Amino acid sequence: MEIYVVQPGDTVDRIAAETKADISSIIHTNQLEYPYRLALGQALLISKQEDALTDSDKIRRRRIETSGYAYPFISSWVLNETLPYLSELSVFSYGFTTEGDLVYPTLDDSWMVNDAIQAESKPTLTLTPLGKDGHFNNGLVTAVVRQRDVQLKLLRNLVWVMTEKGYQGVNIDFEYILSEDRDYFTAFVERATGLLNQFGFYVTVALAPKYSDNHAGLLYEGMDYKALGQAANGVFLMTYEWGYTYGPPMAVAPLNQVRRVVEYALSRIPAYKISMGIPNYGYDWPLPFERGTTKARTLGSIEAVQMAIFYGVPIQFDETAQSPYYTYWQYGVEHQVWFEDIRSYQAKFQMAEEYGLKGIGVWQINQLFRAGWVLLNYRFQIEKF
């Protein structure tokens, strides 16, 4: 496979001729829309016929587990386009009350569980302390991790619903944990793992992206990497959101920062337990940025490229962050867009391979980025269950 960056004067026909690739494959893999206009600097994944993997090639590829978070409002078509590439489907999400009762997703998730099982992907229940306002609520965390009777009620409810619906595991995604709840949270994860493992369920925990044991901030202080790595069956590093809705324009998952998190995690947790998160989205910031006022709009990778084409602006690439970006003007307002493309995915896949990580996880898969999955499938053997 080859990553081709669009040059001045390029067309799909010209690129196909130059790379000796099938034009329909280029269009399909890169989700190009008729009349197949391209942006200068756009990265395309080119799959050549002669690059087809032999059986011996497939055996030599490193095995890896892949996961993807999805909301129940994902389209059936997108989910079933993606499931062949997933070891695990994490359904987002179930909440809970201060009494330990489960709060179900607004939309039915049973069809997602059934589709995942049919595709030999493990359906995983994502457990979050989301309040009625849709935001993470550390008061809910405190109520559960400090009260043993509430914990046991919550865990019993989890066992029941997971058995009833066919879930095979749970991902504990608690964020903004108070520093004083750190050890209580670790004990909760350990207790959950011990109990759920007895029923044949596995337990993973999502970790905010820290650089050190003493990383300051509400997002980080409540998470003990080493202890949580020992307590759970596996961990998911949330290695994204450097660029975020209310922050200044920058890459969502700059590779240099992701590397710092992965290296710290490896100093505390064995590689066979670590999955690295990859974002499947970007942000569009109006400029100038004013903290507390400016709000970025979320957009998918395909949408970001289509916008660059619409506004006739070139896509640039930050070599340090390994991330594409561009600026454009709309109604007299300058905008800056940062997103993920096949080059940034390639860099992250290489990092996962370099460090021998257990897996790669995508937040989130509700929008299809086919080229990323095709490349992943080319580089690795995807573990199926």
What does this structure look like?
The chain is of the alpha/beta class and about 375 residues long. It is built from 13 helices and 17 strands. Helix 8 packs parallel to helix 9 (about 225-230). The longest helix is centred in the middle third of the chain and has 18 residues, at about 150-165. The radius of gyration is 21 Å and the shape is globular.
Outline of the structure:
The chain is of the alpha/beta class and 385 residues long.
- Which class of secondary structure composition applies to the elements? alpha/beta
**What is the chain-wise order of helices and strands?**
EHHEHEHEEHEHHEHEHEHEEEHEEEHEHE
Shape category: globular
Q: How many beta-strand segments?
A: 17
Which descriptors would you attach to this protein?
single chain, 385 residues, alpha/beta, eight-stranded parallel beta barrel, five-stranded antiparallel beta sheet, 13 helices, 17 strands
Sequence-ordered SSE layout with sheet pairings:
Elements: E1 2-5, H1 12-19, H2 23-29, E2 43-46, H3 55-60, E3 63-70, H4 76-82, E4 88-96, E5 102-103, H5 110-118, E6 122-127, H6 138-145, H7 148-165, E7 169-172, H8 182-198, E8 202-207, H9 225-231, E9 234-237, H10 255-266, E10 274-279, E11 282-286, E12 297-299, H11 301-311, E13 316-318, E14 323-330, E15 333-338, H12 342-354, E16 359-363, H13 370-379, E17 381-382
Parallel strand pairs: 3-4, 3-16, 3-17, 4-6, 6-7, 7-8, 8-9, 9-10, 10-16
Antiparallel strand pairs: 1-2, 4-5, 11-12, 11-15, 13-14, 14-15
Helix pairs in contact: 6-8, 8-9, 12-13
